[in-house]
Amino acid sequence: MAVGLAACLAPAVALADGPTANTAQAHFDRGAKLYNLGHFQDAIADFEKAYELDPSPIFLFNIAQSHRQLGNKERALFFYRRYLEQAPNAANRDDVERRMKDLQASLQQEAELKQKPPPGVSSHVETRVDNPPAAEVSGGGAPAVLERPPEVGASPPAEAGRRWVVSLGLAPAFASMSGSAVKLPTMFAALLEGAYRWVVPAGELEVGADLGYARLPYTRVGTSSHPALQGSGGSSAFWGVLASARYLSHVTSDLKLGAGVGGGVVFWSGLDEGNPFTLQGVAPSGALALPAVAVDLRAEYRVADGLFLALTPELLWSDIPSGAGSAIAGVISSVTRLDLVAGVGYAF
After folding, report:
1. Burial class (CB in 10 A: 0-12, 13-18, 19+), 48
2. CB pairs under 8 A, 24+ apart, for 140-144?
3. Which of 47, 160, 174, 231 is most buried (CB neighbours < 10 A)?
4. HSE on the CB side for 87, CA within 13 Å?
5. 257-310 pLDDT, tens digit each
């Protein structure tokens, strides 16, 4: 009844033209009718044919539901696993995992009963383990609800096929320098990230690159050759690229939490004559290349199909090697920065 009501209320789905699309839809419609009539084995055949024509993960879910109703617990578990592998961000992931847990518990109970020695006092009592009614597998009497698949050729309902991710964030940045008495102001930072993700158990692993920028304003100090520079304003910048790796765990179907590491080079440019960071305010001959490493925490929340919000506190440490030039080496040995990055990203 729930399936039939859902089918009546669901809007008409405009499928792509052509015999393949019509055949996939026809197999789904026939499978749904057979499911509603309790002919679960026949429904499985039609759902499998529909999946062959349109490999949408939701068909695997419907096949698993049908096996569960038949009491085929191991087959139901197999198709539930395949469904979550192809649709790791499915909206019904929590419900599917609960069903899988119930099925595994039932299989374990059956295995323990089979290993239990039969009672030796009553020969006319037969110990037998039958498959419970399908409705009891999930712990309730409500039938499984089939879901209408997406249009043939359209994007799947979850983001299983999406591997590339880009995100852009802005942040206040708080920095300190070892060996320098200059008090640094709060900086403005921006971070552009691009990564490729793999689906792994209970989460995702990504490898990519981060492009970062942070502006550091300063007040010039007077020099012997340019005393008039005293008190005037100047601006320098940290910019560079870091290779990164990150692991994200699926907390819910919409929320991911994780952590990452990175390494690369950060350039410090804009150190003009009279800057307060070098010996006697001498300007370096060019941008200084600083080896850098970073660690971060990550929270992502999906707000729409492919679109997510991200919060990334990142700690960045840049070393100033002794070969960086006499203008700065020995005055400042390292720069430590904490960026509180908030932004938006898209998976495709």
Report:
1. middle
2. 142/2, 143/1, 143/2, 143/3, 143/69, 144/65, 144/68, 144/69
3. 47
4. 23
5. 999 999 999 999 988 888 888 777 778 888 888 899 999 999 999 998 889 999
Instruction: Note the pLDDT of residue 245.
Output: 96
Provide φ and ψ at 309, rounded to 5°: -100, 145
Paired residues of 344 in beta bridges:
168, 309
In whole numbers, what is the pLDDT of the chain averaged over residues? 79
Q: Which two tokens stand for residue 52?
A: 């062959």
Residues 8, 149: Cα–Cα separation, whole Å:
15
pLDDT digits (tens, 9 = 90+) for 335-346: 999 999 999 999
39 three-state secondary structure: coil
Sketch out the chain's domains with CATH numbers: 2-117+130-137 (1.25.40.10), 164-347 (2.40.160.20)
Q: What is the pTM of this model?
A: 0.55
What's phi and psi for 306, nearest 5 deg? Answer: 85, -15
Calculate the CA dihedral of residues 241, 246, 250, 255 and round it to 10 degrees: -30
